[in-house]
Amino acid sequence: EDEVKKLGLLTKEMFLSWADLSSSEKVDRVSDRVLELKKSEERADEMQDELTSFSILMLQNSQSPTNADELHKIIRVIDELESITDSIYNLSKLTEDRFGKGIVFTKEERDEISSYRTLTGDYVSFVVDNLDSSDVDLLNSSRAMEEKMDSEHKRLSNEVQLRLENNKGDFRTQLLILEVERNLEHIGDYLLNISETLAGGK
Q: Can you tell me the distance from the alpha carbon of 185 to that of 120, in angstroms, rounded to the nearest whole number?
């Protein structure tokens, strides 16, 4: 479980690093920052392989149904955490693309992304900080956070759609915003999967 927590902390650190990069209007050596996130994502892949292989070995040698259930939970949580790191790396590439193409968000667009990014960051921290808990109350809190993210995603998607319909926003900028929101939505889904797995699917 300590190794799972390490993967969780790596995931959290990656999100914070991307959030810092994403919230900036001008960044030196963007490619270097993205490369660091790529290295972290590759490390997460390695950790996933190592932890999954170890868990499967333990599963094969397990004589207890209870232990087998716990090992299946660990494997699922590992997979979801690694999926989050993939989404974070995707977000870093989108941010690199934004800087590379000189895309500048309006204040409204910045505020929209900031709002959704903050919600997602809070959710990442909440789940990672509670990886050792199977409390149903925590699951209820997790579901509430995911629902809040889902509502925000729908609201922001509607804002993008309105800008496109009224020709008030640059087309490629709106597509980039939708891609950012899509990846953040995926992270929320993965986080809820983790919470439900820890709580035994309750």
A: 8
pTM assigned to the model: 0.91
For 87-143, what is each residue's pLDDT tens digit? 999 999 999 999 999 999 999 999 999 999 999 999 999 999 999 887 888 999 999
For 158-182, the three-class secondary structure string (H helix, E strand, C coil) is HHHHHHHHCCCCCHHHHHHHHHHHH
CA neighbor of 156 nearest in space, from 181, 175, 120: 181
Report the C-alpha gap between 69 and 194 in whole angstroms.
Answer: 15
Q: Give per-residue pLDDT as tens, 2-48.
A: 889 999 999 999 999 999 999 987 777 889 999 999 999 999 999 98
CA distances to 57, 69, 71, 90 from 187, in Å: 29, 25, 23, 11
The secondary structure of 107-173 as a DSSP string is HHHHHHHHHHHHHHHHHHHHHHHTTT---HHHHHHHHHHHHHHHHHHHHHHHHHHHHHHTT-S-HHH
* Alpha-carbon distances, residue 68 vs 2, 52, 59, 63 (angstroms): 18, 13, 6, 8
The angle that helices 65-100 and 30-60 make with each other, rounded to 10 degrees, is 170
Structure tokens, 186: 């995926």
Give kind and range of the element (H or E) at residue 20: helix 2-22
